[in-house]
Amino acid sequence: MKFTYFISAVFLLATAPLFGQMSAEADTFAVVKDSTATEADTITRYYFKEEDYKDSLTVYMELFGKNKFIPDTLRLPFFVALSYYPELYADKIEIEGSIMSHTMQARPTKASVFKRKSKRTYKIFINNRMGVYKGIHLAKLNFNMRVGFFGHELAHLLSYKMRNGMQLIGMGFKYIFSKKYKRQLERETDMETVKRGLGYPLHETKKLILHNEDVEIPLAYRLNSKKNYMTDEEVLDAIRHMSFENTATHTELKKY
User: Fold this and answer.
1) CA 88, 93, 97, 98 torsion-angle sign
2) pLDDT tens per residue, range 187-243
């Protein structure tokens, strides 16, 4: 029993869930710097707007709200992002505040690591801004960026669901002790978010973190994001590469 809790504790030191299938795809995109005014208009057009979805919350709750424990103020952006991850519809997911150095962090509960995948409880922790490190203040983010943050964390949860307990422990060790592995896995998570159709919300979060000087973001936070995650230009290039500028209208199908 002590051994079980020991390896569970080690796993929970990992700051994010991990993808086992390593891919160089997220690490080798050649950034195309040919943005035009037309493309900028396209990007803005596909941003998620709260007024387009506010009447859909009741339907979201009916379709996949079971076993979801989400604060009222975060329900809509969470469920909009979740609508792009049907594999997670039936899973138990909770959101709670926590002292941390990140803005959000997703992981299974300690007691769930070795349970059957269908019996796990997943938590998305949100920085409660009570510690030294404040993360990014969610209340100051627009709806599109909130969807982007949740989209990234749900991609993490999806990776958890694909792994058994021992696999998660092994990946946790690698995440802690290998900077290269950590970088690859975080970028893989960003790429999964784009593939799901949430590239435009993710793109705006990257712009905020890397370039917006009007928002109070610690320099270390910006540098970590630049080092270990895809940049806004890389996200945009991935969207182009996968032709999501043509298929992103599937967001219309997520409104009820």
Assistant:
1) negative
2) 999 999 999 999 999 999 999 999 998 888 889 999 999 999 999 999 999 998 886
Give the number of residues written for the chain: 256
* Type of residue numbered 94: E
- Our CA angle for 152, 123, 203, nearest 5°, is 10
Mean pLDDT of the chain: 82
Which residue type occupies 25?
A: E
Alpha carbon separation from 45 to 147, 173, 201 (Å, rounded): 15, 41, 11
Measured CA to CA, the distance from residue 185 to residue 163 in angstroms comes to 14
Alpha-carbon distance 197 to 245, whole Å? Answer: 10
Sheet holding 68-69, edge to edge: 68-69, 92-98, 121-127, 104-108
E strands along 81-240, which residues? Answer: 92-98, 104-108, 121-127
**pTM of the full predicted structure?**
0.81
Strands (E), the chain: 68-69, 92-98, 104-108, 121-127
Of 91, 105, 93, nearest to 149 (Cα)? 105
Residue 35 CB partners (closer than 8 Å, separation 6+): 236
Distance CA 24, CA 21 (A): 10
* Angle, vertex CA 232, rays to CA 26 and CA 181, nearest 5: 35
Distance, CA of 96 to chain centre: 16
Q: Which residue has the tokens 């991935």?
A: 238
- Which of 190, 170, 188, 191 is CA-nearest to residue 180? 188
